[in-house]
Design a protein that fits this description.
Order of helices and strands: EEEEEHEE
Number of helices: 1
Radius of gyration: 12 Å
Strand content: 35-45%
Largest sheet: 5 strands, antiparallel
Helix content: under 10%
Number of strands: 7
Structural class: mainly beta
Distance between the termini: 23 Å
């Protein structure tokens, strides 16, 4: 089975990015809207059994979405902006 999500990105300090996965066609939950998220992709299919989603460095997306309504890159796994093949 898959999660159907929209993927947002924000710039972090140190030339890094964080990613936010939100169920497709749903708004960003209120607690995360105060940050400048930019839509990167719509309607992406993610394995709902995945423990880690590459290249967005999001851990346990199904659990995070069930708990918070979104899944986000951990501060410990922010993605280097220079990393190739990251949308």
């Amino acid at each position: 089975m898959t999660l159907h999500v929209d993927i947002y990105r924000r710039t972090e300090s140190g030339n890094k990015f964080s990613y936010l996965l939100v169920p497709h066609d749903q708004p960003i939950p209120e607690e995360a809207t105060n940050i400048d998220w930019l839509l990167r992709q719509r309607g992406v299919h993610v394995d709902d059994a995945a423990t880690h989603v590459e290249p967005y460095e999001v851990d346990e997306p199904r659990r995070q979405i069930e708990e918070k309504g979104y899944a986000i890159t951990s501060v410990l796994h922010q993605v280097e902006a220079t990393r190739p093949n990251v949308p």
